[in-house]
Amino acid sequence: MYKLGLIGYPIGHSSSPWIHEQLMKQQGVQGKYDLLEIHPDKFDEEISSLKEKGLDGFNVTVPFKEKIIPHLDAIDGSALHLGAVNTVKNTENGWIGYNTDGSGFVHSLKNRFPDIFQSGSKALLLGSGGAARGIYEALTGSGMDSVDIANRTIGRAEEVIEQISSRAQAEALTLAEAEESLGSYDLVVQTTTVGMSPNDQQTIIRLNRLTKGTVVSDIVYRPMKTKFLKEAEINGARVHYGHEMLLQQAVYAFKIWTDTEPEALPLLDEFEQKLKGV
Questions:
Q1: Which residue range forms the structural domain that includes residue 175?
Q2: Which of 25, 32, 51, 65 is labelled catalytic?
Q3: Can you provide one Gene Ontology molecular function annotated for this UniProt record (predicted)?
Q4: Whole-model pTM?
């Protein structure tokens, strides 16, 4: 009987319980997945209490992907390199941290747009938080020749590039510079919470300079088609939805917790219908 959950703030909107319930059914596993919302002001206190609850594992979402690290007993090499954790497994040696964001994103992107990984492709990430770190490492390790990062505070983008070494070319940009150079990218990824419900009329940059056929991705999945993705379509882009990444990274986390081999694709259509309210 697995005891699993999600920590973050706010998380009342999360679809993670539904996803993991479906994965349990798919694999014939018994368990429960709960939302464990923690207010940022009480994080250290609540995390200490959480250790007493005997969870088998839990996911970590904003704003705690970096803040959780000092509370772990060990950390996977990739997550340590990234400085961000989104999955924790409780073992006989204590809490071990992992990061499945990047692998989940790249896997879901390859399912939908395999051509984007051809030689010479150039990507732009918007934002420099925990999710951006995982996606940056995964993209640079998957053959992308160039992956730039744009952020409101350019110093944060520079930190990610400096801390996560890669073979790909990379440049830190302001959001204004990113808007100006949009036409040079094959892939644009929105990695922040901008545009998430209830603030779903917000966008991080304008997309009027996109080249037709560019793949535009938004990791926000509520609403399923964000204002950012709507504007991308208007400007001729091919869109990649955030729920596809969410589903795939959940599969990787579930593998870590249960040592089973679940599959994301059988759940994709049903998940889309759920998000659409059908």
A1: 102-240
A2: 65
A3: NADP binding
A4: 0.91
